[in-house]
Design brief:
This protein is an alpha+beta fold. It folds into three domains: 126 residues, Butyryl-Coa Dehydrogenase, subunit A, domain 1 (Orthogonal Bundle), CATH 1.10.540.10; 112 residues, Butyryl-CoA Dehydrogenase, subunit A, domain 2 (Beta Barrel); 139 residues, Up-down Bundle (Butyryl-CoA Dehydrogenase, subunit A, domain 3), CATH 1.20.140. The chain is built from eleven helices and ten strands. Strands 1-4-5-8 form a four-stranded mixed sheet. Strands 2-3-7-6 form a four-stranded antiparallel sheet, with no helix packed on it. The chain has a two-stranded antiparallel ribbon with strand order 9-10. The two termini are 30 Å apart.
Length: 397
């Protein structure tokens, strides 16, 4: 039997993460309460984050980089801690057990350092990757297009070689952090005769490139101001900015698919833990007809379900992370974790709103934001339906 008890090293990191949240994140939340609550206060009329909100996010990333958390998954050679997948999900679960707020910018996500950038030469790693590990720069990952959705290989963006440069043309949608990024990865078709995933290449581009522009914000129910439609119009990048081998970019994008799904599932574990603590405290204090509502059978059932879903998902997440660390390809388990985690977080958020009643619908409590987040997370990194298709295929259908 595998023992998932945190090692001494990761126990110290977990304690440091708790200390970091208390010393750095909690004061920022308090000082900027009017900006962050309700969450739409952080947005300009066009859906972008206000300058103050951008500065706040960048402050969290920079402080996290200084504390050694932001690039914790990266190799030590570029300033990371090279933690294992099991250790990573343990950190994410602890981080999100504090709720959903500025902690989203502490460890992982599309703006952070991406292992694809290890394919770049040493000079470019020093220019782009290492500053990102330090939290001094941020990036974006431009794969999705408006016409493709789950079928990511159905790509219209193209890149054509012109001497020692590539000329990129096309549009991408739902690209997280693109309005604020210093650079990005763009995936484009480089061989129109290739079938399926072949013929797609990955490139590094600077967001101050005159051929790049942010067209409009993709506003969502989360009011996070992070996603946008972006455009490439004769965007020229040098041949040295090709990431990996030509026509193999989609395989780079998919190489960390299991990791992306297990990270989302780990967030769900943390957020269910946060919800459980909230509803237990509230149900023990809130009274109706002379006794706490936590003594009511229907409330106890809803809380018991949250606790059960959380424990079940945590076991699945740790087991899947361990399989990844063993060098296996746990596509089935990663899909199960992402599917079960996001669906059950949505149910847990619904239960929490119900326990809190009308209070659960207000911005005075953080529950409704987690509920909205849970609905949103049933779509990225493969929709719930895509996860079910993967699971069915993996079991033999």
């Amino acid at each position: 039997m595998v023992d998932f008890t945190p090692s001494n090293e990761i126990s110290l990191m977990l304690q440091s993460l708790d200390d970091f949240h208390e010393a750095e994140i909690a004061p920022l939340l308090e000082d900027h309460r009017d900006l962050l609550t309700p969450d739409y206060n952080r947005l300009d009329p066009d859906g972008r984050l206000k300058d103050e909100a951008v500065d706040l996010v960048e402050t969290v990333r920079r402080r996290s980089g200084e504390a050694g958390f932001y690039g914790v998954t990266m190799p030590e050679s570029v300033g990371g801690s090279d933690v294992s997948t099991v250790e990573l999900v343990q950190l994410i679960m602890r981080l999100y057990s504090t709720g959903l707020g500025l902690n989203m910018h502490v460890i992982e996500g599309a703006p952070g350092p991406h292992r694809n950038l290890l394919e770049l030469n040493e000079s470019l790693q020093e220019e782009y990757l290492i500053p990102t590990v330090e939290g001094k720069q941020s990036g974006c990952f431009a794969l999705t297009e408006s016409s493709s959705g789950s079928d990511a290989t159905d790509m219209e963006t193209t890149a054509e070689r012109d001497g020692n440069e590539w000329v990129i043309n096309g549009n991408k949608m739902w690209i997280t952090n693109s309005p604020y990024a210093d650079y990005g990865q763009i995936f484009a078709e480089t061989d129109s005769d290739a079938e399926g995933a072949r013929g797609i290449s990955a490139f590094l581009f600077d967001t101050d490139n005159p051929g790049f522009s942010v067209e409009r914000m993709n506003e969502t129910i989360l009011n996070d101001g992070m996603q946008a439609e972006i455009s490439f119009n004769d965007c020229r990048v040098p041949d040295s900015h090709l990431i990996g081998e030509p026509d193999e970019g989609f395989y780079l994008a998919m190489r960390f698919l299991n990791m992306g799904r297990i990270r989302i599932a780990a967030r769900c574990v943390g957020l269910m833990s946060f919800l459980q603590d909230l509803v237990v405290e509230y149900a023990n204090q809130r009274e109706s007809w002379g006794k706490p509502i936590g003594k009511r059978q229907h409330v106890r059932r809803m809380v018991a379900n949250i606790a059960t879903w959380k424990e079940t998902l945590e076991s699945l997440v740790l087991r899947t992370a361990w399989l990844i660390d063993q060098g296996e390809d746990p596509a089935k388990q990663a899909s199960m974790a992402k599917y079960y985690g996001t669906e059950k977080l949505f149910s847990a958020g619904d239960n929490a709103v119900q326990v809190f009643g009308a209070n659960g619908l207000t911005h005075d409590y953080p529950i409704q934001r987690i509920f909205r987040y849970a609905r949103l997370m049933r779509i990225p990194e493969g929709t719930s339906e895509i996860q079910q298709e993967t699971i069915a295929r993996e079991v033999g259908l």
